[in-house]
């Protein structure tokens, strides 16, 4: 529960990369808020925008690509057309071939976070769809490290 409360207090300053998204009429569901499935599309879009612009990633030719192996989302408030969403992106952990992203959705002009999601990608070789024994490419790793946010150390209960 503490982690949920911590996520609910996120601000735009917690995210080194921000991408605007103009909502569309078709993003709304029958309850007049953005449909839950759209959040995952947006999270995938902000991640891939960053990879393409800042990590020398080309979806058509890069020898490795990120396969999503886990995702989830916590919702704190709704957003609906015609609002402009601001998507915040940060990296919480980088492994040998994996990366854990945290993505927040804000409504432009509103400070409270509407949702926070997590995507975990494993970078795999294009030919085998398996992680490379040497891990992810160095240019990719360097680009992701620019978004890496140091996590507080957990104190032992012992």
Compile the SSE list and pairings:
Elements: H1 2-8, E1 17-22, H2 36-54, E2 64-75, E3 84-94, E4 98-107, E5 113-125, H3 138-145
Antiparallel strand pairs: 1-3, 2-5, 3-4, 4-5
Would you kindly provide a written description of the structure presented here, covering whatever features stand out?
The protein is α+β, with helices and mostly antiparallel strands and 158 residues long. The chain has one domain (2-145): Hotdog Thioesterase (Thiol Ester Dehydrase, Chain A), CATH 3.10.129.10. It has three helices and five strands, in the order H-E-H-E-E-E-E-H. The protein has a five-stranded antiparallel beta sheet with strand order 1-3-4-5-2, with helices on both faces. Strand 4 (98-107) and strand 5 form a beta hairpin. The chain starts with a helix and ends in a 13-residue tail after the last helix. The mean pLDDT is 91.
Q: What's this entry about, in short?
A:
With 158 residues, the protein is α+β, with helices and mostly antiparallel strands. It has 3 helices and 5 strands; from the N terminus they run H-E-H-E-E-E-E-H.
Annotation keywords:
158 residues, alpha+beta, five-stranded antiparallel β-sheet
């Amino acid at each position: 529960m503490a982690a949920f409360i911590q996520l609910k207090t996120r601000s735009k300053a917690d995210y080194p990369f921000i991408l605007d998204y103009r909502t569309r009429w078709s993003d709304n569901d029958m309850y007049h808020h953005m449909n839950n499935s759209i959040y995952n599309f947006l999270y995938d879009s902000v991640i891939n925008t960053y990879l393409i612009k800042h990590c020398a990633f080309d979806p058509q030719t890069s020898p490795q690509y990120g396969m999503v192996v886990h995702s989830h989302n916590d919702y704190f408030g709704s957003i609906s057309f015609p609002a402009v969403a601001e998507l915040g992106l940060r990296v919480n952990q980088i492994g040998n071939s994996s990366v854990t992203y945290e993505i927040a959705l804000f409504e432009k002009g509103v400070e409270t976070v509407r949702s926070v999601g997590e995507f975990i990608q494993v970078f795999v070789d294009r030919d085998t769809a398996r992680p490379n024994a040497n891990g992810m490419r160095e240019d990719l790793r360097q680009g992701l490290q620019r978004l890496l946010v140091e996590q507080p150390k957990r104190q032992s209960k012992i």
